[in-house]
Amino acid sequence: MIINKWKGLIIVKKPVRIYFLCIQNRCRSQIAEAFAKHYGKENVIAESAGLEASEIHPLTIAVMKEVGIDISDHASKKIDMKTFLASNVIVKLCENLIERCPVVPFGITNVQWNILDPLVHSDGDIEELHKTRDEIEKKVIDLLKGMNVTL
């Protein structure tokens, strides 16, 4: 919760709750969650999950370490409906035509990024992970700016 004083009034601003989803929660959604926490700080509550739980891929941890963000203590999680329904924004990073993306209920902002899983489509080529990481970083920054989140 952020408390600001303006002309004697106390303004309380709740953090934006963002839930990043993909299929296995081992790469794309983990990267997005980490960037949202990094840039959004106390203005964002970011979590991630997948339709299936998996292990976070070592290359995911490596490419995030390269930009100074340590996610080695993160764990892969399955979608939690309580978190899903409590979110202000659901960001689906799954490629809509290939993967089974969840349906977002009315009243929650639904964002679809259609980012291919670099671990599946590149045989684990770290350069593809770099491209995916950088694309997700830009999209997270644009998302936060579009929601007037102070970076």
From TrEMBL:
<dbReference type="InterPro" id="IPR023485">
    <property type="entry name" value="Ptyr_pPase"/>
</dbReference>
<dbReference type="InterPro" id="IPR036196">
    <property type="entry name" value="Ptyr_pPase_sf"/>
</dbReference>
<keyword id="KW-0059">Arsenical resistance</keyword>
<dbReference type="Pfam" id="PF01451">
    <property type="entry name" value="LMWPc"/>
</dbReference>
<protein>
    <submittedName>
        <fullName>Arsenate reductase (Thioredoxin)</fullName>
    </submittedName>
</protein>
<feature type="domain" description="Phosphotyrosine protein phosphatase I">
    <location>
        <begin position="16"/>
        <end position="146"/>
    </location>
</feature>
